[in-house]
User: Which sequence fits this backbone?
């Protein structure tokens, strides 16, 4: 089987048209980013994210209505996998009032052990409460009750003959407690908790930017060394193009496709870096052919023709590799599960634009540059 | 055939090596499956015996049983250590980033000198530290300078130089994180998490990874609770030996215990009995087996004849702990004493790790709050490491009494329930200034220094990042990843065969070997496989055929200009080499950077991607080449579609 055999298309003649096409998409993306904003996951934004798996299915609307009663700002509610519900809030710290509420809830839990149980609040600070009980055995049982109910964290302290129980009250506990009350007949299991402090989020953002900048720099240096600087520049511009287009798609399609959560998270960042790698990979294959053509045919006046020839000759490889990679990406998109979906989607878009940009951005820029400076490129 | 022998040998070698490295992973998978089946049986049995058993009790029971099954056969643990490790996102567990709250620590240091201005400054510095990369202590010192307040107002003494106080504060802040690491490591070791990872990140952050922890609340509590440092007297060897003897009697069934009876009484009456029995026993010579049957505890531990300390091999520790917790055993251990393990094992001559089991007074003589400072040093006269320790005046008085009354006895330094050191008290120490000798190395002494300070300066720990993945989500991710990888391979393989026929099939064979090598290398480096790592594997499969495609397209081109099969193959490989190398190196650059900057799962992805690149190159340039050369050798024909 052969496709694109002896292809002879004048790709370069249409480069202006594709410049315009790319620009339009990128500008649209910028407009969308300005209006709709970029959506960052809690990795970069900071916040609290809890994923719950309910025994019986819960509709999103029901969950939204109930989540608003919890009193944790304006939480985001999403589906996660088949039966899961994701609750996310920017609120990081528990308020005094909520602590009080949790406290009385906890104390009621002590009473389920024994209705006239004796306890004393010995010490309290911010979100930790220390209770004393009549003996070590009771203290042990209290901790067990707390852990069984899943909502609270308790630990017997060694001081005072193990009669002290420390209870720590956190926001995640508060949310769980509230939900237990709001869904009394529908038990749930916490399958994922992510809590990222605001400082950590900022740090991750900085690291991400450094990582992307360094990879681009590394690629630029390597290609400038292996080819000519203009080739390196063409490849890097193509790469920016791919990242911008993918970001544009992210912003434009955010919330449009159900089940696809297009937020910039750490995994998506990894996908962006991979797409950078793929995009350059593809560009290098075309460049390699151009380099070869220029080496073989010492007649280097006609760069236009050589670039077209190189693209035509590598076209079947471009389509094939793009095709097989896309196959595995689509498999990941469909079967990779919730966690990998955005990752696979990024690569899906990235591979398409990466292939396109090798021809209409990277090669075209090399051509336009050499036409402009009217200098021959030699190897 | 001969001209290929070296390359074929290489391929065979790598394949065998990969299979060898992957065997433990397979074996561990089988073991886990078997253990699960056994547990199911036990669960059913337990439920039958006690239908109303609570879920958490059942879980606890099953957890203990799993532990004992795993510990019963060392080969299970061995294969487990050599398997491909699964990341937290695949097996479930907790990831925590902790930061030492230095502000709270300085509050404690300033103690009574702290006033409104002091708190104001701390608050401001805390706020600024949230957005700054500078250490908190530097920001705080600057704030003091800005306001023209001398540090000596709150820290150190008036006569001290400002710069020296500032340096001291910096040192204390640095110490705090080391101390926190040591405390956390100690607690996690005790908690019994398998394969935990505790790392320092930057100057003030600690990254803790706890695979398979299901009770998040408990783990969180574990990390944040205050450290308890105690000095507890070690019981005399005679006393300890008697207690151990009694335990052996209970275990061998020689002594029936009425659990309602007062435990101390049991011991008392028994101490008298023992003397008679001892003399009788000496007459008989026992065989080893008889001896062990009469003293079941000695199946799991050995005893030091001089100190009566127990030595328990690492893998036996859970067993001994379990025995000591039994109600009948507990009833013969007087309530004012307690068995406590050492924090770290000693490596014996046989290469095995042994923990020491001490019998201590249950009540501490003194707690760590009285310690004001500790310092590890090399003693210039003896050239061996010593740790010096100072106490406040109140502690010094107590210490003088304790040391005076217990000369030549041992006093254990216990942190969070494990013994770090049990030095012998040489003489009465009147001033509180003590010297602890006998540390094996300066490093060991440093740890002791950290431990001693833990009692004095509790540095509260804040959790700044927390990620928990439940086991069910991890299981889902594993199967999703596995299905994707398999399906991805099948589709790509079919496609290649359709398009390139026999040569396509050769590429498919190379691809299987590539995946095998990647997994083998991951196992060999005991790297961690994460979900993005599986994605990297799937992606590698898509991209691995790229090199083959490049080569095959080139061969087709060369054939179409009329070259012979042999010549076409040769120039096909030669001409595509530069493209293959250049394109893979650029991907390698991004992979490397991802590895440097990524955390957890992303790192796993970068690693598989990088390994994938190398194996891909090998697959295309060596495996495919040999197979193609070989298959065209006789017929001089190539099937390439």
Assistant:
């Amino acid at each position: 089987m052969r496709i694109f055999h002896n292809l002879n298309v004048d790709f370069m003649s249409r480069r202006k048209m594709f410049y315009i096409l790319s620009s339009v998409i990128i500008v649209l993306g910028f407009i969308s980013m300005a209006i709709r904003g970029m959506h960052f996951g809690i990795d970069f934004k900071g916040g609290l994210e809890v994923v719950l798996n309910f025994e019986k299915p819960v509709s999103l609307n029901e969950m939204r209505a109930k989540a608003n009663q919890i009193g944790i700002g304006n939480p985001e509610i999403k589906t996660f996998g088949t039966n899961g519900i994701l609750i996310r809030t920017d609120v990081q710290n528990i308020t005094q009032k909520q602590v009080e509420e949790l406290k009385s809830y906890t104390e009621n839990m002590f009473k389920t052990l024994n209705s006239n149980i004796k306890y004393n609040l010995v010490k309290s600070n911010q979100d930790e409460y220390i209770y004393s009980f009549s003996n070590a055995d009771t203290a042990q049982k209290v901790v067990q009750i707390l852990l069984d109910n899943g909502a609270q964290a308790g630990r017997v302290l060694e001081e005072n003959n193990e009669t002290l129980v420390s209870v720590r009250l956190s926001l995640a506990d508060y949310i769980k407690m509230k939900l237990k009350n709001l869904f009394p007949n529908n038990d749930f299991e916490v399958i994922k908790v992510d809590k990222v402090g605001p400082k950590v989020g900022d740090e991750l953002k900085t690291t991400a930017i450094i990582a992307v900048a360094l990879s681009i720099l590394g690629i630029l240096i390597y290609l400038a060394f292996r080819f000519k600087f203009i080739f390196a520049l063409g490849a890097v511009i193509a790469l920016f193009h791919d990242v911008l287009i993918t970001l544009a798609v992210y912003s434009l399609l955010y919330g449009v496709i159900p089940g696809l959560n297009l937020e910039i998270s750490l995994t998506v960042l990894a996908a962006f870096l991979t797409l950078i790698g793929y995009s350059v990979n593809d560009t290098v294959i075309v460049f390699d052919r151009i380099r070869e053509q220029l080496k073989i045919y010492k007649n280097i006046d006609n760069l236009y023709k050589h670039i077209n020839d190189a693209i035509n000759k590598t076209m079947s490889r471009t389509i094939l590799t793009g095709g097989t990679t896309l196959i595995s990406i689509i498999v990941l998109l469909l079967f990779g599960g919730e966690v990998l979906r955005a990752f696979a989607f990024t690569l899906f878009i990235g591979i398409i634009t990466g292939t396109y940009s090798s021809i209409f951005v990277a090669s075209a820029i090399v051509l336009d540059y050499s036409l402009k400076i009217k200098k021959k490129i030699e190897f | 055939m001969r001209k290929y022998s070296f390359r074929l040998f290489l391929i065979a070698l790598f394949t065998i090596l990969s299979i060898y490295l992957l065997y433990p992973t397979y074996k561990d998978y089988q073991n886990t499956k078997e253990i699960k089946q056994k547990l199911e049986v036990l669960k059913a049995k337990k439920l039958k015996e006690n239908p109303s058993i609570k879920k958490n009790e059942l879980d606890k029971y099953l957890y203990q049983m799993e532990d004992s099954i795993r510990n019963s056969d060392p080969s299970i643990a061995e294969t487990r250590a050599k398997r491909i490790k699964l990341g937290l996102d695949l097996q479930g567990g907790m990831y925590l980033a902790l930061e030492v709250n230095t502000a709270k620590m300085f509050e404690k240091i300033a103690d009574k000198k702290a006033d409104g201005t002091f708190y104001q400054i701390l608050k401001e510095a805390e706020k600024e530290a949230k957005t700054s990369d500078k250490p908190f202590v530097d920001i705080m010192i600057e704030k003091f300078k800005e306001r023209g307040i001398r540090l000596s107002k709150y820290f150190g003494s008036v006569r001290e130089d400002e710069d020296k106080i500032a340096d001291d504060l910096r040192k204390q802040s640095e110490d705090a994180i080391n101390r926190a690491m040591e405390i956390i490591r100690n607690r996690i070791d005790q908690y019994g998490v398998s394969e935990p990872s505790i790392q320092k990140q930057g100057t003030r952050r600690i990254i803790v990874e706890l695979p398979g922890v299901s009770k998040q609340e408990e783990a969180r509590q574990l990390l944040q609770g205050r450290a308890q440092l105690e000095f507890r007297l070690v019981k005399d060897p005679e006393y300890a030996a008697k207690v151990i003897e009694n335990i052996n009697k209970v275990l061998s069934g020689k002594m029936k215990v009425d659990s309602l009876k007062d435990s101390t009484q049991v011991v008392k009456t028994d101490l008298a009995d023992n003397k008679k029995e001892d003399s009788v026993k000496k007459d008989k010579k026992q065989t080893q087996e008889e001896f062990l049957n009469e003293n079941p505890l000695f199946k799991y531990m050995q005893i030091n004849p001089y100190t009566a300390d127990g030595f328990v091999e690492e893998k036996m520790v859970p067993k001994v702990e379990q025995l000591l917790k039994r109600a009948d055993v507990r009833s013969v251990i007087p309530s004012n004493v307690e068995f406590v393990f050492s924090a770290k094992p000693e490596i014996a001559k046989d290469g095995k790790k042994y923990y020491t089991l001490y019998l201590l007074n249950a009540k501490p003589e003194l707690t760590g709050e009285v310690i004001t400072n500790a310092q590890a040093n090399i003693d210039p006269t003896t050239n061996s490491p010593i740790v010096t320790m100072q106490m406040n005046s109140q502690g010094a008085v107590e210490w003088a009494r304790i040391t005076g009354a217990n000369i030549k006895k041992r006093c254990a330094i216990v942190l969070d329930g494990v013994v770090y050191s049990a030095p012998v008290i040489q003489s009465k120490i009147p001033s509180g200034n003590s010297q602890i000798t006998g540390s094996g190395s300066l490093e060991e002494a440093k740890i002791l220094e950290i431990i001693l300070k833990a009692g004095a300066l509790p540095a509260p720990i804040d959790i700044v990042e927390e990620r928990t993945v439940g086991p069910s989500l991890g299981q889902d991710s594993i199967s999703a990843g596995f299905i994707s990888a398999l399906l991805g391979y099948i589709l790509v393989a079919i496609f290649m065969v359709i398009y390139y026929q026999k040569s396509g099939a050769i590429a498919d064979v190379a691809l299987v070997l590539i995946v095998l090598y990647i997994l083998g290398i991951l196992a060999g480096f005991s790297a961690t496989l994460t979900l993005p790592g599986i994605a990297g594997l799937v992606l590698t499969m898509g991209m691995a055929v790229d090199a083959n495609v490049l080569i095959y397209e080139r061969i087709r081109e060369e054939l179409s200009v009329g070259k012979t099969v042999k010549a076409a193959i040769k120039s096909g490989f030669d001409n595509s080499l530069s493209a293959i190398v250049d394109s893979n190196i650029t991907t390698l650059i991004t992979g490397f950077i991802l590895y440097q900057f990524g955390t957890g799962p992303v790192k796993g992805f970068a690693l598989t991607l990088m390994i994938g690149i190398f194996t891909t190159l090998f697959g295309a340039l060596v495996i495919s080449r040999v197979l193609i050369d070989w298959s065209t050798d006789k017929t001089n024909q190539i099937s390439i579609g």
Notes: Chain B touches chain A through 82 residues (CB under 8 Å). Chain B has a mean pLDDT of 82. Chain B has four domains: 3-83, 95-225, 231-456, 470-633.
